Amino acid sequence: MFNFDPSNESGDLLPDGDYDATVINLEAKTSKSGNAMLVATLDVYGADGNSRTVQDYLLDTREAAWKLKRFCVAIGHDYKSGALDEAEVSRQQPNIVVRIFTEEGKGDFEPRNRVRAYKPKLTPTANSGGVGASAEAVKPAGADAATDDGLPF
Questions:
Q1: Is 8 exposed, middle or buried (0-12, 13-18, 19+ CB in 10 A)?
Q2: Residue 107 three-state SS
Q3: Looking at residue 152, what DSSP letter applies?
């Protein structure tokens, strides 16, 4: 018999916006369409101090290269090297900032949080954005501004 803890389900979606996150696992896989991809598992910290696990899929395609590049910049990796050691990233568990949005539920699936973009974590501040929240985290959606790295977020 499989025993489980029903209190593990938070059921709470994060509102759209920017949040501190930790990359807890990174795994190389192949997508259903045969493309190389990384599956990033993130702990995303809400304003309530609790984390939610969000998965993101970083494809190695011309159309999705922008997102993979932002991920590399966020974790401090040289995108132009053309290689990323997913085991090393998983061991380091880098802290970053992610822009979260809510994807509508489809069919029998509930709505869920998804990652729209990545950004490097700034100096921690003592705001209400959760564990070690950065000055940029937990700002309202739509507050786009150019960053020093030249990548709008």
A1: exposed
A2: coil
A3: -
> Do the beta carbons of residue 119 and residue 54 sit within 8 Å?
no
Task: Identify each DSSP E strand in 46-111 by its residue range.
Answer: 51-59, 95-103
Contact present, 122 and 128 (Cβ < 8 Å): no
Q: What is the tens place of the pLDDT at every residue in 12-58?
A: 899 999 999 999 999 999 999 999 999 999 999 998 888 999 999 99
Q: Is the distance from CB of 138 to CB of 50 less than 8 angstroms?
A: no
Give the C-alpha distances (Å, rounded to integers) separating 64 from 45, 68, 69, 98, 116: 25, 7, 9, 16, 12
pTM of the complete model: 0.75
Instruction: Report residue 23 as tokens.
Output: 């990359």
Beta bridge partners of 23: 42
CA separation, residue 119 to residues 8, 10, 12, 108, 139 (Å): 29, 26, 24, 32, 13
Q: What is the pLDDT of residues 48-98, one digit of tens each?
A: 888 999 999 999 999 999 999 999 999 999 999 999 999 999 999 999 999
